[in-house]
Amino acid sequence: MSAREDILKAVAANKPEAVDLPVIDQTQVISYANLTEQFKTVLQSIGGSAVEINDLSDLKNELEEKKAAGEFVVNRITELGELNDAATKMSPEELAAVEITYLKAELGVAENGSVWLYESQMGNRLLPFICQHLAILINKESIVATMHHAYEKIDSGREGFGVFLAGPSKTADIEQSLVIGAHGARSLRVFING
Amino acid sequence: MKTMKHAEAAAQFISDEPRTDWHNETLWFVRQKRDKASHGLPEWEQLREWASQIKHHSLSHLDQYLVEFEKNAKANGVTVHWAANGEEHNRIVYDIIQKNNVQRIVKSKSMLTEECGMNEFLHSKGIDIVDTDLGERIVQFRNEPPSHIVLPAIHLKKKDVSDTFHEHLHTEKGNNDPQYLTEAARIHLREKFIASELAITGVNFAIAETGGFVVCTNEGNADMGTHCAKIHIACMGFEKIIPKAEHLSVFLRLLARSATGQPITTYSSHFQKPREGQQMHIVIVDNGRSKQLGRADFRNSLKCIRCAACFNTCPVYRRSGGHSYHTAVAGPIGSILSPNLDMRANADLPFASTLCGSCSNVCPVKIDIHDQLWKWRQVLVAEGYVDTTKKVGLKGMAFLLAHPSLYRFAGKAGRTVMRLFPWLVNNKLNPWYKQREMPAPPKESFREWYLKNKQS
Predict the structure, then answer these.
(1) What is the CATH number of the domain that holds B115?
(2) Is B71 part of a structural domain of the chain?
């Protein structure tokens, strides 16, 4: 007998009596008067920064200036200009040199300051993690209250990979001292447009 | 090698009093952060109830969900392996390494691989794994096991880490700055990530409906490894299965808040398909879980999502340290999981508790941890795994309490002896005298006092 058959047989024999799934009643979960304010407050408390913008001109200028200064920046936001498609095929060694990555996220979650990114929005799975700094654009109206609302909007199985990303990479493994910039991005700025 | 029992190891741990106090306070601080985070959600108790019910439902349909998960994962291009025990799990991982002829391997946190002794097994085959979680890398350099499932190096101080890094990463001697030390680890581990050929991760949640799985980290080490390497092996105990992606909302809301007081971990990564040119493997492990599933009193322990809230709140864990539990998963939850794996080796663990119940109160999936600790004690005594001294003592006490005249005589004799010869009890041979003063013996028993005073 294979391990698979043995395991499935043992589980079938030993599992408890069938119990129904609970109904997740969303009227019972927290709501926020101002989703954007809540999102900003939480994101700042976990080491990220949130900037409200009305148009993309400042962000465009920033991107152009950095490019002109010769910094290795990767843009994956169509509205900001040309996409850096070369980065999608780059090796880890090459991507390790990326200074800033600009990504568009699907939505923001007010209760925890996270954003959801599909693989297609990253261009390359490694990019949001290996770059030194991360700038993410979301639409103001895409901010939802809680994770329950977020999973209603996204289809986490649609693409090969996706991530809820909340703030910069961090650790407290050395005597509980918080250090920002463990292995992933050292900083995260979220631009809230609208 | 003889493993020290919990009480012996704990005695060693508390011999350094300031350090014990520091350990206790550090973990209590984490517990307080958990309280603050949970109090921020009015629906907290409802969330715990939902989480517990979803897990209960999942366990009661586990065989169907495992088959559904396997089918969907395979359709996603993932290779699914099954392992009846730790040995088989290690062998599967080893075979993948051999078949692909890879040497450079990184691993993010996986308590399952600790439980299976995977690193040691592979080391014996000449294969070295680089642990990439900062805390795990620290303890790996020191040749120690993790002392906590979320905070692996919580037993160490900055100076210890500095000394370890000075030795292994050639950092400045005496520089104890966490920022400096973390930066050194970042540079060291980036090299490892970029060069890695194979990445091993654990699994926080596996979703039957999609065949995908979620891995949570704050550092980003699981992602750095898996997205660099051409092979990804994800190792999971079979109880990680949940029915649908929407159920992740309940668990992701609870997990980090319970663990560290964060609203969510920095990265909650949803793996669905291998990237182009990548191999993705999932190893589904039983290793005693199906047996635990059949123990009605103990099956709830399989709901655990490994947040470690029960560690941080436990008065015994805080004052005895993770290593005193001599198992991969320490703390209260480890003490109800480990006897299932080996009753003889772990018979001491359910006794490493005051049964105060704080663990059950903070558990995000409402496992009745302290009840199970108490129930394990009954099982272990009945099966003959408890020290004879403890058994004889308790049997003697039971006999005494069942015979009132003997009880009265023993009480009187005890009081007289303690009054006349206090050194007979105030000595190191009496385990009750350890860290306690014996009380001054009263002149009369309550019964004597009552008989004298009841008329008036």
Answers:
(1) 3.40.50.10420
(2) yes
Q: Which of A148, A162, A171 sits opposite B182 (nearest CB)?
A: A171
Q: Domain spans of chain A?
A: 33-193
Going by their DSSP bridges, the two strands B213-217 and B129-131 should be labelled as unpaired
Cβ distance of A185 and B220 shorter than 8 Å:
yes
Dig out the tokens for B326 from the structure: 């001599």
| pLDDT tens digits in sequence order for chain A, 194 residues long | 699 999 999 999 999 999 999 999 999 999 999 999 999 999 999 999 999 999 999 999 999 999 999 999 999 999 999 999 999 999 999 999 999 999 999 999 999 999 999 999 999 999 999 999 999 999 999 999 999 999 999 999 999 999 999 999 999 999 999 999 999 999 999 999 99
Q: CA of B59: which chain A residue's CA is closest?
A: A15
Inter-chain CB proximity B249 and A150 less than 8 Å? yes
Helix H or strand E encompassing B105: strand B105-107
Is A171 within 8 Å of B219 when comparing Cβ atoms? yes
CB neighbours (10 Å) of residue B284? 25
Low-confidence ranges of chain B (pLDDT < 70): 1-2, 456
Which residue of B267, B276, B282, B311 is the best one to mutate when testing the A interface, meaning the one whose CB has the most A CBs within 10 A?
B267
Please write the tens of the pLDDT for every residue from B260-282.
Answer: 999 999 999 999 999 999 999 99
The ipTM value here is 0.98
As given in the structure block, the two tokens for residue B245 are 């992606």
Tell me if A112 and B263 make a contact (CB, 8 A cut-off).
yes
Smallest Cβ–Cβ distance between B266 and the set A160, A169, A179 belongs to A169
Q: Is B246 on the interface with A (CB under 8 A)?
A: yes
Taking CA atoms, B314 is separated from B104, B276, B349, B365, in Å, by 39, 46, 13, 17
Distance, in angstroms, between A32 CA and closest chain B CA? 11
Nearest to B291 by CA among B343, B333, B327: B343
The architecture (CATH level 2) of A33-193 comes to 3-Layer(aba) Sandwich (3.40)
- Give the pair of three-digit tokens for residue B261: 């007081």
B60 vs A19, A93, A156: nearest CB? A19
